[in-house]
Design a protein that fits this description.
This protein is mainly alpha-helical. The protein has 2 domains: 72 residues, Arc Repressor Mutant, subunit A, CATH 1.10.10.10; 44 residues. It is 62% helix and 10% strand. It is built from 7 helices and 2 strands; from the N terminus they run H-H-H-H-E-E-H-H-H. It has a two-stranded antiparallel ribbon with strand order 1-2. Helix 3 packs across helix 4. It is elongated, with a radius of gyration of 19 Å. It starts with a helix and ends in a 6-residue tail after the last helix.
């Protein structure tokens, strides 16, 4: 059994690999096309399940392609990271404390970038 667990992927690893291939493709891919690009001996149903889960999370969009679907990332990598950050904020009970902790742990350069961005959108009065 240790051999089996060593070959198992970490949680989310297959989703991350699928997204990376979808971004690289720059066109909608069917589960079969994605499976070929993953270069793995994955079952087509496994790839379809991963894509369905990503669709349910809003990470990919899909269009009809033949009798199935073709999938496209809903946003680029930066957009996905921002979406995850919003999801974490929405999950917390004390949003101001989470934001305060986040900002207090920024590097000086990230703090300057954040101040500039807030100034651009008119969100900073400092």
């Amino acid at each position: 059994m240790p051999e089996e667990s060593a070959s198992r992927r970490l949680a989310g690893e297959l989703e991350a690999q699928a997204l990376a291939r979808l971004w690289a493709a720059e066109q909608p891919l069917t589960p079969g096309q994605l499976r070929a690009r993953l270069g793995d001996d994955l079952a087509r149903t496994t790839v379809t399940t991963i894509l369905s889960r990503l669709y349910d999370k809003g990470v990919v969009t899909r269009t009809t392609s033949g009798r199935g679907f073709a999938y496209t990332p809903a946003s680029d990598a930066s957009g996905l990271t921002a979406r995850r950050m919003h999801a974490e904020l929405d999950r917390g009970e004390d949003r101001p404390s989470v934001l305060a902790r986040f900002v207090s742990e920024l590097t000086e350069q990230d703090g300057e970038t954040l101040r500039a961005l807030l100034s651009e959108i008119g969100g900073s009065e400092a």
